[in-house]
Fold this sequence. Notes:
Distance between the termini: 32 Å
Number of strands: 15
Oligomer: single chain
Number of helices: 11
Strand order of the largest sheet: 1-8-2-3-7-4-6-5-9-10-11
Radius of gyration: 19 Å
Structural class: alpha/beta
Shape: globular
CATH architecture of the largest domain: Alpha-Beta Complex
Largest sheet: 11 strands, mixed
CATH class of the largest domain: Alpha Beta
Order of helices and strands: EHEEHEHHEHEHEHEEEHEEHEEHEH
Bound molecules: adenosine monophosphate, magnesium ion
Helix content: 25-40%
Amino acid sequence: MTIVSSDIQLASSFLKEGKLVAIPTETVYGLAANIFDEAAVKGIFKLKERPLFNPLIVHIHNLAQLEELANELPEKAKQLAAAFWPGELTLVVKKKEIVPDLITAGKDTVAIRMPKHTLVRELLQQIDFPLAAPSANPSGSISPTNAERVKEYFDGILPMVLDGGSCSSGIESTIIGFEGEEAILYRLGAISIEEIEKEIGPVKQNTTNDSSPEAPGMLLKHYSPKTSLILSTDIKKTLGKFFNKKIGVLVFSNALESSSILHQEVLSETANFKEAAANIYEALQRLDHANLDIILAEKLPDKDLGKSLNDRLVRAAAKD
Length: 320
Ligand code: AMP
Ligand code: MG
């Protein structure tokens, strides 16, 4: 049986014993282990069936931990950390020797984030090691934004889910790496690229290349429901092409009226991107549980967090 509880003491003692614990963060739930415990970290890859070439994000709670793990940071990394930490930003920086190869997939860089969710911050304060934590889902499937979804995925094979309620941001962190002093976007996420560029100026974008050596985790098919998903720029027209099928629909703000829709999810009635982000994965989960033949999803306006959400929908729609 998987324990679902907000008991931080229990979570910290499990982690100290080398057990895996799913942790709440403001982005999505993470599947956490002590970064220095090789057997426990291997357990993350095994439980998720995650390929070993896909490195993990290290979660810290203060800048002293950053110094232990990373070499001298580029100036822009310091600016971004000052502006967005704690929060939904991951920085990929040159690592120190102490960071195990298993965490970084043998690379000389490490991805680091300081989350702001209060429960996970309290937990990190009670243990004296950082936590490696990818999203708490089987590799490639929809990321969980509440404790119940984590339990659904790993019931009986994961010791504990630390229950911190629903994730407020709802999609993964934005990942920024560096080539020398130049900042590069590795993954669109909960902080928009516009917000990042307001702090440090133009950022080079490098997120779509499936075989990019910089971010091996950015596989095209990802965040995927089991039901096939079609992404459409004209959802009314697309809907007209599907009849005799059990159809579910995911729209940004305007509900469609059609008797052929069995289940409809509206991400934000006020067309608010942050609200849409907070809802997207749970909406996909509900659609995926509605016994449909097909999910039709509407492409969002391609700006601000709409870009990040479209990135997730493109990958959710991708075929093997
Ligand atoms: P997830 O934990 O599921 O949110 O995925 C973590 C993401 O961070 C993946 O896309 C990884 O490829 C990326 N990542 C982690 N470490 C590094 C690194 N050293 N360099 C580039 N990308 C990284
Ligand atoms: Mg993930």
